[in-house]
Design brief:
Low-confidence stretches: 123-141
Largest sheet: 9 strands, mixed
Oligomer: single chain
Strand content: 15-25%
Radius of gyration: 23 Å
Number of domains: 2
Bound molecules: zinc ion
Shape: elongated
CATH architecture of the largest domain: Alpha-Beta Barrel
CATH class of the largest domain: Alpha Beta
Structural class: alpha/beta
Distance between the termini: 64 Å
Strand order of the largest sheet: 9-8-7-4-3-2-1-10-11
Order of helices and strands: HEHEHEEHEEHEHEHEEHHE
Number of helices: 9
Length: 262
């Protein structure tokens, strides 16, 4: 009789422990788990050569259920900047696409660099001033530097994130030398649709330790869905109630956890 009672107590204790463990794991998974977020980190508006307003781009991003978007016009626009940092419908990351111009045997050659998430205070008329000491000149609101390394270094000094924009696209080709040595955080990758680019990309990725990210360089609303990223971030945004931050996306890019959304 006494033994049965002891067994019953033991079973009860085991059951309670199991329930506590399941509840704890459930809580842990929801609050400290991961979530998937989607978005596009390379877009243009009428601030530069895009055909759509900031609002039209955001509305399309919301229609596509994007969690984040970066506005990366070729110049700084006060109004777009203010709209972006005050955006509440999704995470808007303010950026700029910088032109790096070199001359090889007197032939002009341009490369594009995405500068993302420059902290407020460093953004106003960002590049013309900052680069003036490096003999970088501002031509038609486009920044011209002689070497992407200078631009990437400056972006990092300002606390930003530097991505090589469409680096293997022939018109704005960035050599493997610069991809390797300029300090880029990531590079834009292509998939399938451009076989020539993809074969060079495979080669570069096999030799260089540079994470890929996918975006579409959207100049129109209907280009926003062409290519974008699905990132697995380390925070469960919904369950924890915390706001999505670019830091979580940056980490996902650097760890190779951003894939092309399909
Ligand atoms: Zn570009
Ligand atoms: Zn662009």
């Amino acid at each position: 009789m006494k033994r049965n009672k002891q067994l019953l107590i033991t079973a009860f204790v085991v059951l309670i422990t199991l329930i506590i463990l399941v509840l704890f794991l459930y809580f842990f998974k929801n609050n400290f788990g991961s979530s998937e977020v989607i978005g596009n980190l390379h877009t243009h508006t009428t601030c530069s050569d895009g055909t759509e307003s900031y609002d039209s781009m955001i509305e399309e991003a919301l229609r596509l259920k994007m969690d984040f978007i970066a506005i990366t016009d070729h110049r700084y626009c006060e109004e777009t900047y203010k709209n972006c940092i005050a955006e509440t419908r999704l995470l808007c990351i303010y950026g700029q696409e910088i032109n790096v111009r070199t001359y090889e045997n007197n032939v002009q050659k341009d490369m594009h660099v995405l500068a993302l998430d420059i902290p407020p205070g460093n953004t106003t008329e960002l590049f013309p001033e900052i680069f003036s000491d490096l003999q970088v000149i501002n031509v038609r609101n486009n920044i011209v530097a002689s070497d992407p390394t200078i631009v990437v270094k400056k972006i990092h000094e300002l606390g930003g994130f530097a991505i090589a924009a469409h680096p293997l696209y022939s018109m704005f080709h960035i050599s493997e030398y610069y991809l390797n040595s300029s300090g880029f955080d990531a590079m834009e990758c292509f998939k399938d649709e451009y076989p020539d680019i993809v074969s060079e990309q495979k080669l570069v990725l096999s030799r260089e330790d540079l994470p890929c990210m996918y975006s579409s360089d959207a100049h129109k609303v209907n280009e926003l869905k062409r290519t974008y990223s699905r990132c697995v971030i380390a925070v469960n945004v919904e369950a924890s109630g915390s706001k999505l931050k670019f830091d979580a996306i940056k980490k996902a890019i650097l760890e190779g956890n951003c894939k092309r959304y399909e």
